[in-house]
Amino acid sequence: MTKEQFVVTAAQMRDIEGRIFAAGMPVAALMEKVGRLISDSFARHWQRLQSIIPLSPLFQGGLGGSNVGILAGPGHNGGDALVVARELHFQGYQVWIYQPFAKLKELTSQHLQYAQSLGIPCFTELAELPSCDFLIDGLFGFGLEREITGNIAEAINHFNDWNKPIFSIDLPSGLHTDTGEVLGTAIRANHTFCLGLWKQGLLQEQALEYIGQAELIDFDIPLADIHAILGEVPKIKRITKTTVFDTLSLPLSPTTHKYKSGHLLLISGSKRYAGGAILTGLGARASGVGMLSIAVPESIKPLLISHLPEALIIGCPETETGAISHLQLPPNTDLNSFNAIACGPGLTTDATPIIEQVINSDVPLILDADGLNILAQLGTISTLQKRQNTTILTPHTGEFHRLFPDINYQDRVKAVQTAASQTGAVVLLKGARTAISNPEGVVWINAESTPALARGGSGDVLTGLMGGILARVVNKQVNIEDVVAAAAWWHSQGGILAVKERTELGVDAFTLTQYLIRVLKLSIEDIL
Ligand SMILES: NC(=O)C1=CN([C@@H]2O[C@H](COP(=O)(O)OP(=O)(O)OC[C@H]3O[C@@H](n4cnc5c(N)ncnc54)[C@H](OP(=O)(O)O)[C@@H]3O)[C@@H](O)[C@H]2O)[C@@H](O)CC1
Ligand SMILES: Nc1ncnc2c1ncn2[C@@H]1O[C@H](COP(=O)(O)OP(=O)(O)O)[C@@H](O)[C@H]1O
Ligand SMILES: [K+]
């Protein structure tokens, strides 16, 4: 595992830190190291930002003239901020410190004393503060456990109103380290330097509006200390490129043939929602699956053929409403002919018999969209109990609630763990921070995405892509949750690349399908 993949709670971070200190690392030395790493990273970002953000009238020209306000808290988060204050002072920035606390931890107090001895102005009252070009927030880190109130809450709201870029140390002050909940009020950062290991709260949706761009500052925590606290196989992990490339089974074997590269059956679309079938098919195309069959109502078969000439389009008898009434597979084919089935986008809830049929089959199965709505009507847990083979459910929040009305989905990590354990399925809960769990509670979180994906049809693309990867690798000793994670990561990265080239408004679902291979190519070049 790489450092980027680990996710910790405050208690786990404290325990890991405890081991490092017990082994002889002086606390002050670690703070010094962390502070220097933050200042270096900050200087790089500031140089880039300066070219795009107008500076205050006090700006005196040149990078060294920038004005920086440091917000220092009473604990070691404040200590980190004071090391950064000193470093930036020596680099030529105009620095001031806001420190309104009566009682400081000893190390923090020493750094404050030294900063003052260097002539760095230090203020305790908001009204006294000069202007600045940006703020560095070191009020609270993972030691914050209770609500922020009174003058500190007022100060945080005041700084948010300044509309200056804010860089937060470890996490935006005011966020709960584990849940990402706002404790009273919180700094709205433009950039967060997360220290050492990703804190769980930074991966929770409720924290997203406060974090800005997040970056991990690696300060060389020994892997042995991480595993001693998190276990050899940590329960909660962040998806990274490495996860994905371990799963995609590339490069292809030189002796492969089309049936060795997987055969996927997509069951999707209706007269009313023909587009869902096309988007799912285009998502599957990008997976590189060897054989793609798509079952649709007879009347939309010509449309599918025109978009996906390489796929075998299976026209099925349809209901009066234009949904598939039953599957009519080609001669000598049954469901066992496929390595995986992905089922649901655009089906409408009139296709109930199809869902019953695929659930009763013994083929690895992905259910999405109307596949999930029908499953909810059939009774989620009792219906899935019959299944022997792999099942993957990919609900968005509304579908999740229909499937699992008794599970509280506010804490998304717990929600997917419970849903997966109740059903024996791998459950992916879509959203800004998609969370995935297997029945044993091993969780992947997709921490990089873009709101540009919040558009109709983008989930259909994910279903097709995931189905194709599943069909390709399902017989190759992979963990199913890794396949699901790989698809979620690839889908989001496609969206992120599309945003870079086309803006956040330019990522309709069809366009997204065109970016999947482009982003894969860039990622492969990156790791070579
Ligand atoms: N782990 C690592 O490897 C490393 C960690 N490092 C850094 O240490 C940080 C953690 O430091 P930390 O433990 O001192 O806690 P921190 O977040 O500064 O705040 C706690 C202080 O705030 C106070 N306080 C709390 N709530 C409050 C409230 N509502 N309103 C007002 N006050 C409140 C509380 O006081 P008390 O509860 O005693 O009243 C206490 O004094 C971590 O985020 C990282 O930046 C790096 O330096 C090196 C590597
Ligand atoms: N705010 C957001 N940030 C990042 N990704 C998002 C956001 N909102 C939705 N998504 C992603 O967009 C996709 C939407 O899927 P879904 O709701 O099933 O749409 P549809 O059914 O129209 O295809 C999911 O992959 C989801 O994770
Ligand atoms: K902070």
TrEMBL record:
Which residues participate in K(+) binding?
A: 77, 137, 173
Query: Is Isomerase among this UniProt entry's keywords?
Result: yes
Q: Which Gene3D superfamilies match?
A: 3.40.1190.20, YjeF N-terminal domain
Q: Which PROSITE patterns match?
A: YJEF_C_2, YJEF_C_3, YJEF_N
Q: What is this protein called?
A: Bifunctional NAD(P)H-hydrate repair enzyme
Ranges of residues in domain YjeF C-terminal: 241-523
Q: What does this protein do?
A: Bifunctional enzyme that catalyzes the epimerization of the S- and R-forms of NAD(P)HX and the dehydration of the S-form of NAD(P)HX at the expense of ADP, which is converted to AMP. This allows the repair of both epimers of NAD(P)HX, a damaged form of NAD(P)H that is a result of enzymatic or heat-dependent hydration.
Q: Per the entry, which co-factors are needed?
A: Mg(2+); K(+)
What residues bind (6S)-NADPHX, as annotated? 76-80, 141-147, 170, 346, 396, 460
In which family does this protein belong, per the annotation?
In the N-terminal section; belongs to the NnrE/AIBP family. Belongs to the NnrD/CARKD family.
